[in-house]
Amino acid sequence: MPFPDIDPIIFSIGPLSIRWYSMAYLVGILWGAHIVKKRGKSFLNIDEKISDDYIIWATLGIILGGRIGYVLFYNFEYYIVNPSQILAVWHGGMSFHGGLCGLIIATFIYLRKHKIAFFPFADILCTVGPLGLFFGRCANFINGELFGRVAPDLSWGIIFPTGGPLPRHPSQIYEALLEGALLFIITNIAWAKMKNKTGFTSGVFLCGYSFCRMFVEQFREPDVQVGFVFSHITMGQILSTPMLIIGIILVANSLRLKHANS
pLDDT by residue (tens digit) across 65-79? Predict the structure, then answer.
């Protein structure tokens, strides 16, 4: 299948260009913020003004963490020689795992400042995280980046503009459907049924994302500057392993508390 002719730039106003990638971040954050504000007020009695202020912290945490994570995990040798390029986010380069770490740190600091319990709020946050993942992976597909490995006999394989002449797995779509759509459904069901069990939904999100990411990494082309870290293990799979372990611990602890209280 030929790559769809979609311009990465939605529209331009003079020198300012609005891209699908930045729009994905914007839509994911705003839609997620709306849900978090609504659930935070009804379930945790959080003032809406606090929720509005938190979005600024969360956005900064995601962007700074995502960029720092990319620099450290995926292209450290380049940026240590070209430090002036670290802040050039318009050239691309964001790490989900770094963005998650940045979000966790920003959330912890902000909630502690306002004396709000971390995990009940984090459980709500994890129900909207897949929204950003869905839109972000769709934007990756539109940009023709982070494509999959060569699959010459795959009937739905895509010939990406910068991926050579052979069809490849559209791994961005796999991730959008699994890390995004499927995980959104799973985490929201988990929160609806177990919202009183602190940490359960957070654990489900971490486990779900890890499983999906590790699975899709089998079809995704490793970053050219990193390649396989060892054998056929990718950086994405390595970074997802601690998430899986922490997720299992959170789910197990939540279920243990449920049993103890029953």
Answer: 999 999 998 888 888
Count CB atoms within 10 A of the CB of residue 4. 9
Q: How far is Cα 134 from Cα 179, in angstroms, rounded to an integer?
A: 7
Handedness of CA 149, 150, 153, 156 (dihedral sign): positive
Q: For residues 134 and 172, what is the distance between their CA atoms, to the nearest angstrom?
A: 9
The number of residues making up the chain comes to 262
Beta strands in 166-242 (DSSP E): none
Cα angle for residues 253, 34, 139 (degrees, 5° grid): 90
How many CB atoms sit inside 10 A of residue 236's CB?
24
| The pLDDT of residue 53 | 86
Determine the Cα–Cα distance for residues 15 and 200; give it in Å rounded to an integer.
46
Q: What is the pLDDT of residues 51-61, one digit of tens each?
A: 788 889 999 99
Both tokens assigned to 22: 């930045």
Helix (H) or strand (E) holding 143: helix 118-143
In contact, 121 and 107? CB cutoff 8 Å: yes
